[in-house]
Amino acid sequence: METTITRSSPSRGELLRNVLIADGVVCAVTGLLVAAAAGPLNDLLGLPTSLLRGVGLFLIPFGTLVFLLGMRPVPARTAVQMLIAGNLLWVVASIGLLVSGRVDPTGLGIAFVLLQAALVAAFAELEMLGLRRG
Questions:
Q1: Considering only CA atoms, which of 96, 74, 86 is closest in space to residue 123?
Q2: What is the per-residue pLDDT across 10-47, written as a single tens digit (0 to 9) for each?
Q3: Quick one: pLDDT at residue 45?
Q4: Rounded CA gap, 30 and 56, in Å?
Q5: Are the C-beta atoms of residues 125 and 87 closer than 8 Å to each other?
Q6: How far apart are alpha carbons 36 and 47 in whole angstroms?
Q7: What is the model's pLDDT at position 13?
Q8: Are 84 and 124 in contact (CB under 8 A)?
Q9: pTM of the complete model
Q10: I need a labelling partner for 18 at 20 to 30 A (CA). Which of 94, 99, 104, 127 fits?
Q11: Contact at 8 Å (CB) between 26 and 59?
Q12: Given this model, what pLDDT does residue 1 score?
């Protein structure tokens, strides 16, 4: 008896929906964690508690909206384009924060800001790819 495994190709838009869902979950979960632990993170990262809490509280509803966008059978192209632009602005603002001199992050704080900026840039790239494929 011979077993054959077949792999179906992803449906149009599946990549985009999956990336949007992942982006939304990562945003919301990060927001919850950063908002809840803003005080201890201030000591660890050297970033102001008010900044961390504000970013965390922003990311919770933002991530929820991105998640819901990904749950749609066909995410609205304009909404995805706006999300990509917002993600790219986030990356620029993150780097701008580090070079502005307005904060004095620890080495771990610098790494945290750069790592999250890189992750956001990767989501933007995958969302652009998903738009082209979908």
A1: 86
A2: 566 899 999 999 999 999 999 999 999 999 999 999 99
A3: 98
A4: 7
A5: no
A6: 15
A7: 86
A8: yes
A9: 0.89
A10: 94
A11: no
A12: 59
